[in-house]
Amino acid sequence: MTAVVQRGARDPARSAARSGVGPPLRLSPLGFGASQGGNLYRATSEEQFAAAVDTAWAGGIRYFDTAPHYGLGLSERRLGAALRSRPRGEYVVSTKVGRLLVPSPETAHRRDPEGFDVPADHRRVWDFSRDGVRRSLEASLRRTGLDRIDVVYLHDPDEHWEQAAREAIPALVELREQGVIGAVGAGMNQSAMLARFVAETDVDVVMCAGRYTLLEQGALTDLLPVAQTRHVGVVVAGVYNSGLLARDVPPPDAVYDYQQAPAEVIDQARRIARVCQMYGVTLPQAALAFVRRHPAVVSTVVGMRDEAQVTETLRRTGVDVPDQLWTALYDEGLLDVQS
């Protein structure tokens, strides 16, 4: 079963005046995050990544997310190659704009300083201008080799609200109405500014990483209510909070928000894990199931590196989690909402 992102549905008055707004996008409930295809933290071989995409496809995944930031374009190139032989009408691809990749031959002998195991032969330049958005999208189309991009997100515009809201979003809306792209969105590691994008701009979908998870539900107070009201889809990423919730019992060196998790956060995750065990569910299984319950959530994107990770993620999403677990976690003060 797929979730629908209804493009141009937030404001009927504005939508009625539009031309060129296409049919709704259909996102598979589980999306394939391709950051590992850009050698996030460590190298991934071409064969490993291709096998991961093959396994995802066989498992029914039809939504694939990438970005220029991921491996300085490597993720986009690999994802495009892996999807090229698939029927174009059967899958959805999202990428991102906001970081232009500029050649940097003087640093090519170094490794990328932003966590990807690739040569630093390009540097990232923030640019949410109209021209920057168009240049970024054109480069993404070349790297992927695809004829179109279905969803384009602004990527981490935290420090660039004015330019992002006043230039980047209108530029993307123009491209959407011309049929060049399918849907407009923003992707961030915070929920407050995403809520502003939903309330104040003409986005179709947003990607919220890490702020609506089994561990923390901050998006319940800002993003999710306005997304429901405005009929904007929410894609949840970072469901494991950077790895903390990815294992049955969080280890002492667990990572949270891309750094060593504080002791009190690890303790909270372990308390959640113990309650999950009482109901015959693992922590990662519960983490995936929890976010899917909210009606505003249209898909969950999980980063997957190889065939084994895809297989395990598909297995976890297929587990039937009893409703009593959510009540028990709420009663223990471990959930902010009685889901």
Q: Would you mind describing this structure in some detail?
A:
Helix 2 (46-58) runs parallel beside helix 10 and helix 6 (192-200) runs parallel beside helix 7 (223-230). It is globular, with a radius of gyration of 19 Å. The strands form four sheets. Strands 3-4-5-8-9-10-11-14 form an eight-stranded parallel barrel, surrounded by six helices. A two-stranded antiparallel ribbon has the order 1-2. The protein has helices spanning 12-16, 46-58, 74-83, 130-144, 161-177, 192-200, 223-230, 263-278, 283-292, 307-317, 323-331, and strands at 3-5, 25-27, 30-33, 63-65, 92-97, 99-103, 122-126, 149-155, 181-188, 205-209, 233-237, 255-256, 259-260, 297-303. The protein has eleven helices and 14 strands. With 339 residues, the protein is α/β, with parallel strands linked by helices. It starts with a strand and ends in an 8-residue tail after the last helix.
Taking all residues together, what is the mean pLDDT?
94
- What is the overall number of helices? 11
Q: What is the subunit arrangement here?
A: single chain
**What is the N-to-C order of secondary-structure elements (H for helix, E for strand)?**
EHEEHEHEEEHEHEHEHEEEHHEHH
Distance between the termini: 22 Å
Helix content: 25-40%
Tell me about the largest β-sheet: 8 strands, parallel, barrel
**Beta strand %:** 15-25%
Low-confidence stretches: 11-21
Tally of DSSP β-strands: 14
User: Class by helix and strand content?
Assistant: alpha/beta
Global morphology: globular
> Over the alpha carbons, how many angstroms does the gyration radius reach?
19 Å
